[in-house]
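Re: beginner question about structure tokens

> Can someone show what the tokenized structure looks like for a real chain? I only ever see the sequence side.

Sure, here's an example I had lying around. Input first:
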Amino acid sequence: MDKMNAFEEYSASAKKALKEGDYILAEAKIKQAMNENPHSPGVHNLYGILEELLNEDNLAHKHYRAAIALDPAYAPAMRNLERISTFAEHARKAHVDFGDTSEQDGEDVYIIEYNRNHVGHLRKKDRK
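And the corresponding structure tokens:
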């Protein structure tokens, strides 16, 4: 089995184990996937999900931030970090993003606003 196939297999097994509540197997598969590709934002996102499900929010934050540092455009980790960083109870119960659904084009969540010095800043769009 080549590295990419092994990585994909470990990641898929980890997602399945997380969804089924088998956290011991999930952690083992996440570690195997991380061994194959330590620079994957998806693996750190999965590790964040595992830590969140184990009520280890500080470690979950750490892994979500690591995923975003590896790929600043990795939306699943951004959504998960935003979800667990809010105090609103309804937001905390929102869907965990495993990163297994493709992003749809045209769904820009942020817009760029320029200040008087022509420096752009990202601002989250208001939901309609």
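Each token stands for a local structural state, so reading them left to right follows the chain. The chain is about 55% helix and 10% strand.
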